[in-house]
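debug: dumping io for the single-chain case to check the tokenizer round-trip. Nothing else runs in this session.
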Amino acid sequence: MDRIKTVSVPSVEMLDALQPAPDGISVVVWDFDADPVGADLAEIDAAVLPYMSSPETFGAAVKSAPNLLLVHTQSTGYEGIPELVGDDVAVTSAAGVHAAATAELAVGLTIASLRGIDDAVRNQTLGQWWPGRYLGLADRKVLLVGVGGIGVEIARRLEPFEVELTRVGSSARDDEWGHVHGSDELVTLAGEAEVLIVITPLTDATRGLINAEVLAAMPDGALVVNVARGAVVDSEALTAEVIAGRLSAALDVFDPEPVPEGHPLWSASGALITPHSGGNTGAFWPRMIKLLRRQLVSFAAGEEPTNLVQRGSLYR
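debug: decoded output
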């Protein structure tokens, strides 16, 4: 039976952080720009992919490894990776590593927009003191689209702010926190939403899920917060609503990324943009290393790793 014995990581820093490796596991460096250091390409059984890189940047290198059994992302999302490696290669994600950081950014963007902090920063650069009354987060009707790990963390962080929270998943159901509405109810639910927070994964089913119809159903003055993937929201429809001044947007992601030079959202008064930095905090590195250490132990024992999203031939 095939087993993982040699694992590549994309940096010397990560290699050092994972020492000592469990018995039976060799960890080497492969940055996907040059040949692996410490092993031949044919010896690599599992590869940890670079953080904040797309398959376009490392795809050719990954495909050149003839005996690859598994790839491991450093992100929660893994879109494009199964298609890149094929059905026989297992795929694991970093689900959980970014949950706290992404949740705090989602809430931070929401507060910043609803309290006019973005306006205050713009006014500060002009040396202007313009007080005003903003909506604030307390008592707002919040529609949270996405009930996975990060969605749970966002909901937990919203609770102290005394919001009226409605959650939406792929299908209607009840869980330990109450009722989850199905995505087929989105247009109706959007009609009452003062804040829409998006954290659903990007799949064929969720691409363009927040479309023109959903956005048009939202009340005047509502806020759209996207910390998921840009393509979950119809960029053209959202831009039109923000430029018209009917909706506001606080976006950590967009389609395409980066937001193109000269795009009207850059200068829109109702837009707050951060550069896809949801999970990129000081919490990332220690949590990622902790996860990878657990994965190495699983590899050494011949057990399934955590966060297996494609089984490949190894775990069928």
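debug: round-trip ok. Residues 284-301 form the longest helix (18 residues).
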